[in-house]
Amino acid sequence: MKEIYLAGGCFWGVEHYFRNIEGVVDTEVGFANGDALMPSPTYEQVYTDTTGYAETVRVIYNPEALPLDELLRCFFCAIDPLSLNKQGEDEGTRYRTGVYYTEHADLDTIRQVFDEVQSEYSKPLAVELLPLENFFTAEGRHQDYLVKNPDGYCHLPLKLFRYPRLVSDLRHLLGDEPDFVARMSNATALIKEEMGFFWVGFYLVGPSVPELVEGSESELILGPFQGSVACMRIGCGRGVCGTAWKEGRTVVVPDVEGFPGHIACSSLSKSEIVVPVFKENEVVAVLDIDSDELATFDPVDAFWLGRLVAVVSRS
Q1: CA proximity to 63, closest of 13, 100, 109
Q2: Intervals of the chain under pLDDT 70
Q3: Rounded to whole angstroms, how far apart are CA atoms 18 and 15?
Q4: Catalytic residue of the set 10, 74, 236, 265
Q5: Distance of alpha carbon 15 from its chain centroid, rounded?
Q6: Distance between CA 253 and CA 239 in Å, rounded?
Q7: What gap in Å lies between CA 200 and CA 187, rounded to an integer?
Q8: Where does residue 2 fall: left (phi above 0), alpha (psi -120 to 50 degrees), or beta otherwise?
Q9: What is the pTM of this model?
Q10: Is 10 a catalytic residue?
């Protein structure tokens, strides 16, 4: 087992998030990298923002089940990496973000993930990257706070707690089943059941029908889905699904009416996300999810649905 210390704002929600991620063995909340002349601070002392401590979660994990780089990507998914001393509505130096390591050998991996995240932004990250100087466990009432207080305050969106469980449930549900269609079928059912989206389905890359699609050797063909009737074939580059396939990237659309060339399978669909499914670095299918509300999907959905389709394609 290994450990890493993560500061991501209020530690109640951050701990609850990580305890749901497969590969995390244990968690503990406390205060890190503060004034060495004030050891074992109380929550009330740290709250004054005069101690230099950050609310931090000690994460003990199994690197064989959850490599450090994947764990850190989960962390960055849960924070605003550009926000200085503020996460959600919580503000102060105690709510700063940071990754504090205890093994120098981990530094290369940590820096690699930092570089990946930095490449997505034009402004510098506001996330500290430092060795752990000190850590003091918080009072017992703060440990597993949201387990003890299910309706307690949390600055994180609820779906951050639901997605890790969904991915874990799907992994166990699919097991070693080798058939790709069978895996997709149960995946759509589980996503629909646990997340309640309006439409969930897969389109598979397959041979085109010349009389239906001119000038194309392949197209997306409707596969297993949950929801209302849908378009059966979509050409490469057409609509949101065809764009995600052609460009090999996840496409998030807050308002489908504003997407050029949108294919309207249902007038009830308002926003959409399409995630490509890769096998051997080639897109073999896409996961298409529609919502009947505007702006349903964001980077949290993109990150965790990407992990989900990786489970589906692993056969």
Answers
A1: 109
A2: 210-216, 315
A3: 5
A4: 10
A5: 15
A6: 11
A7: 9
A8: beta
A9: 0.94
A10: yes
